[in-house]
Write a structure and sequence with these properties.
By secondary structure, the chain is mainly α. The protein has a domain of about 150 residues: Farnesyl Diphosphate Synthase (Orthogonal Bundle), CATH 1.10.600. The protein contains 16 helices and two strands. Helix 4 packs antiparallel against helix 6, helix 4 runs parallel beside helix 7 and helix 4 packs antiparallel against helix 8. The longest helix has 28 residues. The radius of gyration is 20 Å and the shape is globular. The relative contact order is 0.10. The model has no long low-confidence stretch (mean pLDDT about 95).
């Protein structure tokens, strides 16, 4: 079985081979720029892994995996514009390095390029890929709109937040694996179950991101710990703490999430205490494990070898214990 590092290296090599700057440079340079910023490459790697698990050379899924990565980064460019974010993966965001109009146009081009990559497959496979991709793309947009709407609301529920991250993050992880299964011509039942495995894994992945943003080791996490707190982002941790905390702690939490002190460290420390005392920290850890365990259950109805199921189980557990 090919290692995850090999999948990642093969994908990056293919990305550099296929995505190059050309004229007009101000359209294509931002695309190569954001794609070279790195990241975990989780989604395209899962596409390649899935393809191989269904006894098909992973090289056949390289175009599909690149389409997934193009779409993911297209959404990041537009998210950064909407959030007015100055940095992405420690580097200047596309709209800051160029301008907003360039960011919008380059992002649009990435979406179109993603669809073009599916044209490299036979007509039946293309139709199946496009159907999954289109459904996922509109759900990601819906998730992003929910996220924007929630910024203006004070009454967001835990259930609404989970629904939002399901669409904004989790469905793309599920789709990445489904697309690998389609390329490998897996059965419909296997496609449906690998999607649910990936979707639940995506939920656990996002909740783990929320958790690490607060409780991660800054030396390992790769970005500033407490970033969500500084930007007053109401994540699962916040919503759970607010629901379960004492009335006094609720009011303190609301106050802390309404201010931007000169020294954010004091704010982060105070909120961390509430997250712990309210049980939100433990509840988030339990929720991450719940979604991971649920993902693993879907492996039972996927037509791959026992060794393949073990590989996916190990991968799921690796994500739950990650520190970055």
């Amino acid at each position: 079985m090919t290692s995850l590092d090999t999948f990642r290296e093969e994908f990056i090599h293919y990305l550099h081979e296929k995505v190059t700057s050309k004229e007009p440079r101000n359209l294509y340079e931002p695309i190569t720029y954001i794609l070279e910023l790195g990241g975990k490459r989780l989604r395209p790697v899962l596409t390649l892994v899935t393809c191989e698990l269904f006894n098909t050379p992973f090289q056949q899924a390289l175009d599909a995996s690149l389409a997934i990565e193009l779409f993911h980064n297209f959404s990041l460019i537009h998210d950064d514009i909407m959030d007015n974010a100055p940095l992405r993966r420690g580097k200047v965001t596309v709209h800051e390095k160029w301008d907003i109009n360039t960011g919008i146009l380059s992002g649009d081009a990435m979406l179109i390029l993603a669809y073009q990559l599916f044209e490299n497959y036979d007509p039946i496979t293309f139709q199946q890929l496009a159907k999954v991709f289109s459904k996922t793309a509109i759900e990601v947009c819906e998730g992003q709109q929910y996220d924007v709407d929630f910024e203006e609301r004070e009454d967001v529920t835990i259930e609404e937040y989970l629904h939002m991250i399901n669409y904004k993050t989790a469905v793309l992880v599920g789709a990445a694996m489904t697309i690998g299964a389609i390329v490998a011509r897996a059965t419909k039942i296997s496609q449906e179950n690998i999607f649910e495995f990936g979707r639940n894994l995506g939920m656990a992945f996002q909740l783990q991101d929320d958790y690490l943003d607060v409780f991660g080791d800054p030396k390992l996490f790769g970005k500033q710990v407490g970033g969500d707190i500084i930007s007053n982002k109401k994540t699962y941790l916040y919503l759970t703490a607010h629901k379960n905390a004492s009335t006094e702690a609720q009011k303190e939490l609301e106050h802390l999430f309404s201010i931007q002190p000169e020294n954010p460290e004091d704010k982060i420390e105070a909120i961390n205490r509430i997250f712990e005392s309210s049980g939100a920290k433990l509840k988030t850890q339990a929720e991450i494990k719940k979604y991971t365990d649920k993902a693993i259950l879907f492996l039972e109805n996927i037509e791959i070898t026992a060794e393949g199921k073990k590989q996916l189980t190990d991968f799921a557990k690796l994500l739950i214990y990650r520190t970055i």
